[in-house]
Specification:
Layout (H helix, E strand, L loop, with lengths): L1 H15 L8 H4 L1 H29 L5 E7 L5 E7 L24 H9 L7 H5 L4 E3 L6 H7 L1 H4 L12 E3 L1 H5 L6 H17 L2 H15 L6 H5 L34 H11 L6 E9 L2 E9 L2
Parallel strand pairs: 3-4
Antiparallel strand pairs: 1-2, 5-6
Helix pairs in contact: 1-6
Length: 297
């Protein structure tokens, strides 16, 4: 962890001296956010307690776990979450991004992730002043170092100028990170939020998050609150590295791929006379991404 943090801090310091000016709104709201976080934690405490019991009954391991994340100005801190994976989830892989249909996620954990209930213990981080209710999503130092995010993703260090958030503009519009392309798209929305943050925007994001926790998904909540954002266009990545749920950037006159077109693309890219091709089609919000994996006979 220390090596990862040491690698990141120069980038964070460079971002602090850059042209980005963080609105004073972030400083003005800090105390109010901590008070609101305490009130929400008191309300959510019975729910967290019930979920802890269910987690302990359904799988081996502690119900709440701590994990190091990178916070404001590149400083590490301990984040609290409800456990959604097996207790030994990273014994073989080490720290990696969670993938779609990840086999490490427990059945109960999948439901908690879908409703974002696993994030509720982070209200304690808000009370402690380590997180904001709304802001960029914090990442693990091991992944930041392994993927060299501060070097490969523009403005990545700049987003560390503010406290990370339990929810945010990027989180309600885009799926969880799986590739560099995912990170690039989220950082673009993070920077939009930092530059346009206001009380009205925060209240709409909080309300939208509450609707999503109640199961209102598929873009309905973000459109209702006027928070829907098209996925920012990034450089086209190599085949089979598109961010799940987003798909490759299409030309202005080219509609997103549907399932049939995605299958054709994968079959074309990985066509061969001997190996069989296993296609996994992932789709969200009407955009399909094709991932092809070769298996020898």
């Amino acid at each position: 962890m220390n090596s990862a943090v040491a690698w990141l801090e120069p980038a964070a310091r460079e971002a602090q001296s850059a042209a980005l000016r963080v609105p004073k709104y972030f400083d003005r709201k800090r105390l109010a956010v901590r008070v609101l976080g305490l009130a929400l934690l008191i309300v959510a405490a019975p729910v967290i307690a019930i979920l802890c019991v269910l987690i302990r009954l359904s799988s081996r391991g502690s119900a709440i776990f701590r994990q190091v994340r990178i916070g404001k100005d590149g400083k590490p801190y301990q984040i609290y979450k409800l456990r959604t994976m097996r207790a030994d989830a990273e014994s073989l892989t080490g720290p990696v991004w969670c993938s779609s249909n990840d086999s490490r996620v427990t059945p109960l954990g999948r439901a908690l992730r879908y409703l974002h209930l696993d994030e509720l213990p982070q209200l304690w981080n808000v009370v402690r002043g380590e997180m904001d209710l709304i802001g960029p999503r914090p990442e693990r130092p091991e992944i930041i170092a392994a993927e060299k995010l501060a070097d490969r993703v523009g403005d990545y260090a700049s987003r560390l100028r503010v406290l990370p958030g339990v929810t945010g503009l990027a989180q309600i519009n885009l799926p969880a990170d799986q590739t560099i392309d995912c990170v690039q798209r989220k950082v673009a929305l993070d920077m939009e939020y930092i530059n346009t943050a206001s009380l009205g925007l925060d209240l709409r994001i909080l309300a939208c998050t509450a609707f999503r926790m109640l199961g209102v998904r598929h873009g309905i909540a973000v459109r209702f609150f006027g928070l829907s954002r098209p996925a920012p266009t990034t450089a086209k990545p190599a085949a089979a590295t598109f961010c799940s749920g987003v798909g490759p950037p299409a030309a202005e006159d080219e509609p997103p791929m549907n399932h049939r077109e995605a299958k054709r693309l994968a079959a074309y890219l990985y066509r061969t006379p001997t190996p069989a091709v296993d296609l996994a089609i992932e789709s969200e919000n009407g955009v399909a991404a094709a991932i092809a994996r070769k298996h020898p006979r």
